[in-house]
Structure formats: C-alpha cells, structure tokens
Amino acid sequence: MGRDGRGVKGASESSIEITFMFNGVRCRERIPLKPTSANLKRAEQHRAAVMHAIATGCFDYAATFPNSKNAAKFADQKGDVTLIEPYLEQWLERMKLQLKASTYATYRKIVLGRLIPWFGALRLSEFGRQHMRDQLVKLEAGNKTLGNIQSVMRCALEEAVEVDGLLRSNPLAGWTYRKKDAPRKTDEIDPFTKEEQAAILGVLAGQNHNLIKFAFWTGLRTSELVALDWSDIDFVAGVVRVSRAITQYSDEAEVTKTDAGMRDVKLLAPALEALDAQKQYTWLAGKEVFQNPQTLERWAGDQPIRKTMWQYAIKKAGVRPRYPYQTRHTYASMMLSAREHPMWVAQQMGHADWTMIARRYGRWMPDADKLAGSRAEALYGARQSSEVGIKTGP
Questions:
Q1: Topology, domain 84-162
Q2: In the beta sheet, which residues pair with residue 264?
Q3: pTM of the prediction?
C-alpha cells in the first residue's frame, strides 16, 4: 500500500501517488510533488484528510481531484461512512491512545496486513462470518494466529455496535473459526546447557557479561531487563522488583503486561554476583542497571541487544544460535530440574499459576522419586488396614 502501509508512495521523479477506498473501489491519484521525505509526509496528511472526508460522507471527488478520470465516474456520489477500510483506520488511531505500544503494533500489523486487504472494500453492514471464514480457511497458520486476527476484528466491530451505533449486532460475537488440523507453532523452548552458558559468558566482558549472567539467573524477559533501575534492587530483602518493561515499540518504560508480571524475584548468588560486578559501571548514577557499552545509555529494547552483542557472542562461543529470550527458558529449566517447587518458579517468572509452567516446561520436571507416596501410605494406609478387620455387628 505504499510507504510503510500508509497508502502513499513515489510514483515518478515529480509525483506522489496516494491510494484509498471510495464507494468500494480502490482509487489511485497522483499529486504533483517531488517524492521527498517532507512531501511524502504532506501526501500522508492529504490522504488522511481525504479518508476523513470519505468517512464523514462529505467527500467531493471532482473538487478534490478535478483533473482525475475518476471525477466523472463518481460525480454526485458521497462516501459511505460504513466502509470497512476507513472505519478500521479510524478505529486503529483511537486504539493508539488506549493500548500499550507493543499491543498497538500487533493490532496495526493485523489491520493493515490482513483485515483491510481482505475486507476494506466491504461496508460494515455487508460483513459476515462467512467473509472471515473464507479468508482464514486459505491461511496457512496456527489457531493462535487465526484467533488473534478474529479478536482484532471482533473488537473493532464491537465498538461499531456499542459506541458508534453503526451496526445492530456484532457478526463475530460468540463465534470463532478454528482449524482441526492447523499447523502448530514449533516448540520455541530451547534452553542453554550448563556448558553453553559457560561458553557464552566466557566470551563476554564487562556490562555485557553482567547482563547475560543476570538474565540466566533471574529469568527476566529481555524487555524487563532493559527497564531495570537500581531503585528496583532491594539488597536487604534479596529481591529485584519487576514492574516495568521496554519493548522495541515503546519510547519509555511501560507497566508489565499482567498483574502477575509485577513481582519480586529472588536474587540467587550468581545474580547478586552480576549486580556487584555491574556497580562499577552504573551504580553511582542511580538510574538504569544495564547499559549499552557502545552508547553508555539504557538499552533501547531487545533488538539492539540481539544485533550488536548477542549474535557476536553466540558465534564466537561456538554455540548453536538461539534468541536472547532463551535465557528466560534456561532459568525455568534449571529451577525445575533442580526440583524447585513449580508454584515458586511460576511466581518468579510472573505467571499467574503453575499450570503454564507445567504445560511449557513439564519435560524438565523430574519424575517422582521412589519414595513418593510413602508418607501418605504410612499415615493413612495402616489406619485403613486396621479398620478393615473391625466387625460392626451381626
């Protein structure tokens, strides 16, 4: 759809093309501007004004594009406010003020990459479950992805019903399309062995070494690590308070995704060692714990860590490539393999209950030992055996 999905692109050395839907027809019009960065931004603003006029039913094609061949075709026609494309674009803009940056980025990807290309030319009143089903049945994706797409559309339609009064009912309410044999997401849990951890830490030095060692022994998400401040460290209680995260989509720290994500994580000895070693770099400033050594500023998210430090370390250490997020899975597998209680591990990792731990990390939970059940047998079994021989009467 042009520049970054915004419906604007350079058409020639002296013109910019904008794309928009009008009365169910995809229209392309050229603006006589050289496609510089500033002019492309002006074209985006012009397209936004066109889309607003269409959505409010006051768009005049001939007045806006007097030299266009489409002007005669659409003479005396007004835009329909119920077209799905302009409605979704306006809804998405409203969501930007309500959602976390990372969640909004996911919504935007689904709206611009799926929903508008599929349904943009339809009116809201024309859309039905069959339209969604016919698109999803062709999509090679797992049920989680299919569910996410439907969830975004369902949310937009619900606002069209409850807030904007454009629909009498939500056609996706109470209905979800699923595939019986949908491809499952491959198991991404691939922790590092003790030897691999040593190899990685062996090629890292300074702040980078401290960051990755701390990650291995706390299980914090990468987004939580980069948001960490020294004020979050309680050396007396021996815990780190996790309450914020910084993603590649956010300009500043955001609260954790769930209430369970806000937690106190016990500082095990290796994690404390990493913090003690880190003090010489950032302790006196009293702000972020970990910095990008190249900029001496807080890491800007997980992508800079992966691209500027992690990939180099993995390659130099000769370790099979995995993402930095695997440090979190490594922590979980170590704790469970050492027979730490699953509920405690769940709390440390920010899960609401232990069922997630059992489902995702069950293979690292050792089988019960040979004496398992013997205590219950000794306490209750003997009593029941004695009661079997008691006669209660003729």
A1: DNA polymerase; domain 1 (1.10.150)
A2: 241
A3: 0.57
